[in-house]
């Protein structure tokens, strides 16, 4: 079964509020079996507009990634990042 990857590209506009979001999101990632592969770090725009924070979280399946994203735990964390960032989140199926 292919793995599922949650990929986020983020520009943080309120670091304090975003830090509160990150605490809750980290706990939810662990609870739902996610493994952060990329979390911030150096980046380089090769094409298009880049965002300063990039995150890739691996889950055992697309369904497990969906469970995480739609969980009450993650949704509570997500509410804390409202107004704290500009972000795009996508769920991508991995290669078999």
Summarize this entry quickly.
With 96 residues, the protein is of the alpha+beta class. 36% of the residues lie in helices and 31% in strands.
Task: Give an overview of the whole structure.
This protein is of the alpha+beta class and 96 residues long. The protein has one domain: Alpha-Beta Plaits. It is 36% helix and 31% strand. It has a four-stranded antiparallel beta sheet, with helices on one face. The protein is globular, with a radius of gyration of 13 Å. It comes from Microvirga puerhi. InterPro entries: Dimeric_a/b-barrel, DUF1330. This is DUF1330 domain-containing protein.
What topology does this entry show?
Elements: E1 4-12, H1 15-31, E2 35-39, E3 53-59, H2 62-70, H3 72-80, E4 85-93
Antiparallel strand pairs: 1-3, 1-4, 2-3
Helix pairs in contact: 1-3
List keywords for this structure.
alpha+beta; 96 residues; single chain; Alpha-Beta Plaits; 3 helices
The count of β-strands is 4
- Secondary structure category: alpha+beta
Major beta sheet, strand line-up = 2-3-1-4
- Compute the average pLDDT: 96
Report the CATH architecture: 2-Layer Sandwich
